[in-house]
Specification:
The chain is mainly α and about 250 residues long. The protein has nine helices and five strands; from the N terminus they run αααβααββαααββα. It holds the Pfam family EAP30.
Length: about 250
C-alpha cells in the first residue's frame, strides 16, 4: 500500500506541475498578445502620421520604416513616394530613383549584418519585402543596380563574379581582402564546406561557395568531392613548394 500511495502522490505532483506550467504559459501568451496589439496600434499611428505629412517625409525614410515593420511581422501599406515605373517618362530617371530606394534598404542591412556584399537575389527579396504589395520586377532591380556606380553618393556598386553571380557591394569593398579572409578561415578550420563557411560569415551558401571557388581559381585552396560532399582545403601543394624553394 505504501508503494501505491507514493505513486499516487508523485502523479498528483506531476499533474499540479503541469497545470502550473500551462497557467504560466497562458499568462505569457496573454502578455505577448497585449504587446502585439500595442505595437500594431503604434505602427498604424506612425503610418498615419507619415501619410499625413506627405512631402515632409522622404521616400527613403518611408521604405526604411516599412522594412522595420516587416521585420517585426507587422504589415501596413504606405505608398508615399514609392517609385512606380508608370509615373516616369524616362527609364533612366526611374532606375536612378529606384537605385536610391534600394540603397536605403541595402546599406543599413549590410551594416547590421556586418557584411560587404549581398547577392542580387537577396537584394530583390529584401527590397520587395519592404515595399509590401507594390513589387518591383527582377529586371527593374537589375537595371537599377547597374545605375548604382553612376551615383557615387550611394557608395554601392554592382559586381559580377567570373561565374556570373551578381552581388551588390560597398564601393570600398576589397575583393582581394575578402578572398584572403576566406582562405584564413579555411586554414584555421583545416577544411570547410560552403555551408560551414556561410554560417561563419553569415552570408548565403551561394555566396560562400563563390568565395571558396574564387580562392580555388587562384590556387590558394583546393577541393575534395566525395560522398560526404564538397570540401575546400588549404592548397598545401603551393605552400609546401614555397617552403622547399625558400
Amino acid at each position: 500500500m505504501a508503494g501505491l500511495s507514493r505513486i499516487e502522490i508523485k502523479q498528483k505532483q506531476r499533474l499540479e506541475d503541469t497545470d502550473r506550467n500551462i497557467s504560466e504559459a497562458f499568462q505569457d501568451l496573454s502578455q505577448l498578445m497585449a504587446m502585439a496589439q500595442a505595437m500594431t496600434k503604434l505602427s498604424k499611428s506612425i503610418a498615419a502620421k507619415i501619410e499625413g505629412h506627405g512631402s515632409q517625409v522622404t521616400t527613403d525614410e518611408t521604405i526604411q520604416f516599412k522594412s522595420h515593420l516587416m521585420e517585426l511581422g507587422l504589415q501596413h501599406q504606405i505608398d508615399v513616394g514609392l517609385a512606380s515605373k508608370s509615373s516616369y517618362s524616362s527609364n533612366v530617371h526611374y532606375y536612378n530613383d529606384l537605385a536610391r530606394q534600394i540603397s536605403s534598404i541595402v546599406r543599413p542591412l549590410m551594416k547590421d549584418r556586418r557584411q560587404e556584399q549581398l547577392t542580387l537575389s537577396d537584394v530583390y527579396c529584401c527590397f520587395n519585402r519592404a515595399r509590401g504589395m507594390d513589387l518591383v520586377s527582377p529586371d527593374d532591380i537589375l537595371n537599377a543596380c547597374k545605375q548604382l556606380e553612376q551615383l557615387p553618393d550611394l557608395q554601392l556598386r554592382l559586381y559580377k563574379y567570373k561565374s556570373g553571380l551578381l552581388v551588390v557591394q560597398n564601393q570600398s569593398c576589397d575583393n582581394e581582402e575578402l578572398m584572403n579572409k576566406t582562405v584564413e578561415l579555411v586554414e584555421r578550420a583545416g577544411a570547410l564546406t560552403p555551408l560551414q563557411l556561410s554560417a561563419r560569415l553569415m552570408v548565403s551558401v551561394q555566396l560562400a561557395r563563390q568565395r571558396l571557388e574564387e580562392a580555388e581559381s587562384v590556387g590558394k585552396l583546393c577541393r575534395d568531392e566525395s560522398l560526404e560532399g564538397l570540401k575546400f582545403y588549404p592548397n598545401k601543394f603551393i605552400t609546401q613548394q614555397a617552403t622547399y624553394t625558400a
